[in-house]
Write a structure and sequence with these properties.
InterPro entries: Tscrpt_reg_HTH_GntR (IPR000524), WH-like_DNA-bd_sf (IPR036388), WH_DNA-bd_sf (IPR036390). The chain is mainly α. The chain has helices spanning 17-30, 43-50, 54-66, 88-108, 113-123, and strands spanning 70-73, 77-80. Helix 1 crosses helix 3, helix 1 (17-30) packs across helix 4 and helix 2 (43-50) packs across helix 3 (54-66).
């Protein structure tokens, strides 16, 4: 079982905690950080790590299961489902989510969207 790395929940965000968790796991699956059939962090362990209610984790995992990213085995946990590399629609959804989260953070710090665009153009 691979621990979910670098997952930090922003409790002040307008994005619900379960959605932040779901999107983080989805990004890791789509980017190949998890192999098919690999066990992900248990509900209990994830709840303890993030200090959130287990129902929050269950909601995130359930939605991932409904979207075809994980499957559950009663009494054993949740496992990564084989995902085709051609899941461009899903990748676009993750891209939009990550962009929205980034813009939310920089605007909270007093920067504008144009500031972000200018900075990205410098990097390119």
């Amino acid at each position: 079982m691979k621990q979910i790395e670098n997952l930090k929940v922003d409790y002040k965000s307008i994005i619900p905690v379960y959605e932040q968790i779901k999107q983080h796991i989805k990004v890791n699956i789509l980017s190949g950080n998890y192999s098919a059939d690999e066990k992900i962090t248990s509900v209990r362990e994830m709840s303890r790590m993030l200090q959130v209610n287990q129902n929050t984790i269950v909601k995130a995992y359930y939605q991932l299961e409904q979207e075809g990213f994980v499957y559950s085995q009663p009494g054993r946990g949740y496992f990564v489902k084989a995902v085709k590399n051609s899941e461009s629609r899903e990748k676009e959804e993750v891209f939009r989510y990550e962009t929205k989260a980034y813009l939310e953070k920089i605007t909270a710090m007093g920067f504008s969207v144009n500031d972000a665009i200018a900075e990205m153009e410098k990097m390119n």
